[in-house]
Design a protein that fits this description.
Number of domains: 2
Order of helices and strands: EHEHEHEHEHHEHHEEHEEEHE
Largest sheet: 5 strands, parallel
Bound molecules: magnesium ion
Strand content: 15-25%
Shape: elongated
Helix content: 40-55%
CATH class of the largest domain: Alpha Beta
CATH architecture of the largest domain: 2-Layer Sandwich
């Protein structure tokens, strides 16, 4: 990883000629780079398959065991993120050879004997590309996060949690595992907003989300389904266990108020629980609908309670 504005790199240098390798290594180190020297292409390839492998590689064309061209091709064959920038080192200066090198996947080339000034600018160009690549990946990560997470609570958003449920249903259709879906809603949430303002409301939602998430098992997922409504997906969970989990969360809220920068708020939750084994009914709408109906009954029945909506009938 190169930090912003940092132009020091870890560079893999594969060159079988000892003199050239040492000269290059000394030159690169002089500019502050860290060098991983390799005497042949095979060692270079092994090095590249390690974690946190160098993002810039300088490969001599002619090397024993595996030449630079082959290593280039292999890198491009398996290329995943992040990008590996390849500079081919060659005594060949005929145009066709250079074209062949670039076609094999190299980004640039340097002819031997190398000129330090030329090496310097080529490495600078490499650093620019690698930096751009890292910025791009960072931006992609941020936008992926934004597209799948709720900005207020940091939980999965509705779209993402439904996608997770859909995947779980598809999986359970295969292996017959039961999946519990729990829909929960903050009782009388509107009163918090009306009496204490939206900042307090937001804080209550954030803390509620955190509290629910902390009370789940590691492989359970929770998303913000709507305003003050959360959808929980619990794989490999039967009806009894699901109702117990919902009841435990309900009690936690009943026993401990939410303490926030906006004040202390007693928060109560209502729950609707539904179960499916995915067989013949792998539709998210159906199982979510069943949990939703149960939640409605919990509200009707006086709130602050858990209602089991039943197991999804495979014919629906
Ligand atoms: Mg050589």
């Amino acid at each position: 990883m190169i930090g912003k504005g940092n132009s020091k790199l870890r560079i893999l240098l594969a060159e079988d000629d000892v003199i050239t390798r040492r000269l290059l290594e000394a030159q690169l180190k002089k500019w502050g780079h860290e060098v991983v020297p390799c005497p042949d292409g095979q060692q270079a390839w092994d090095e590249l398959n390690k974690d946190e492998s160098p993002k810039l590689v300088i490969l001599d064309w002619m090397m024993p065991i595996m030449d630079g061209l082959t290593v280039s091709k292999k890198i491009r064959e398996v290329e995943t993120r992040p990008y590996t920038y390849i500079i081919l080192l060659t005594a060949k200066s005929r145009k066709e050879d250079i074209v062949e090198g670039l076609e094999a996947g190299a980004d640039d080339y340097i002819t031997k004997p190398f000129d330090p000034q030329e090496l310097r600018v080529r490495i600078r160009a490499a650093i620019r590309i690698i930096q751009l690549q890292e910025d791009l990946l960072e931006a992609l990560k941020t936008s992926e996060f934004r597209a799948t997470h709720d900005s207020l609570t940091g939980l999965w958003n509705r779209y993402a949690i439904l996608g997770i449920l859909e995947k779980q249903l598809a999986r359970s259709t295969r292996d017959g595992d039961e999946i519990a879906v729990i829909m929960t809603d903050v009782d009388h949430f509107k009163k918090v907003n009306d009496n204490y303002g939206h900042l307090a409301g937001d804080e209550v939602l954030r803390q509620t989300a955190r509290k629910i998430k902390n009370s789940l098992r590691q492989y359970d997922e929770v998303g913000r389904y709507g305003g003050e409504e959360f959808l929980l997906v619990l794989p490999g969970c039967n009806s009894e266990a699901a109702v117990n989990i919902a009841e435990r969360i309900r009690l936690e809220f009943e026993e401990t108020p939410i303490v926030s920068s906006e004040g202390t708020f007693p928060v109560r939750l209502s729950f609707g629980v539904a179960i499916t084994n995915g067989k013949d009914c792998a539709k998210t709408d159906n199982v979510v609908g069943l949990a939703d109906e149960a939640l409605y009954k919990a509200k009707e029945g006086g709130r602050n309670r858990v209602v089991f909506g039943g197991k999804l009938d495979p014919k629906t």
